[in-house]
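Hey all, quick one. A colleague (J.T.) asked me to put the zinc ion job into the tracker so the inputs and the structure tokens live in one place instead of scattered across chat threads. No bug as far as I know, just bookkeeping. Sequence used:
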Amino acid sequence: MKCPYCGNEQDRVLDSRPLDGASVIRRRRVCQSCHKRFTTYERLENVPLMVSKSDGRLETFSREKLREGISRACEKRPIPADAVERLVSEIEYELQDYLMQVPSHVIGEKVLQKLLKLDHVAYVRFASVYRQFQDADAFLQELEKLKKAGVKPDPDFHPGRGRKSLKLKKAVKVKEEAVG
Ligand SMILES: [Zn+2]
């Protein structure tokens, strides 16, 4: 396991603990080079992340579907070509905090947060689909909120860059290793 602090590949496992039954294992590790500690989560690949919808249905998480939704909101906007892909990757990475199941609204809110920093039009488009505005009033309210909040898109916003917190919580998926 590569140390998230110094990149060294030698580490020692201090503690392993199964979570969510036995399909996820949490390991505390210590780097043998810089001696910092980090945690990894291992999820069997045949145990997919499930998305729980507001009506209680469960769906398998789909990267494709997430990308489609974001791309649609970003259509014809002056957004760097790789911004959507990076945004999807960043969200997917953050979702590793959710080991077995994630409520769909968590994903929706993450997308909104990131779009807000990227492009206001894309944000409002996504919000209108995601929050299912019933009428023009609801839509205008959202615009009003944006104006009041006075949030300006950050032209230097690069999803996935300079995010220390992501590096600290390095998570991994196990491909073939059996848990037992
Ligand atoms: Zn290290």
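Adding what we noticed when we looked at it: The chain has a mean pLDDT of 78. The pocket of zinc ion is lined by residues 3, 5-6, 8, 31, 33-34, 36 (CB under 6 Å).
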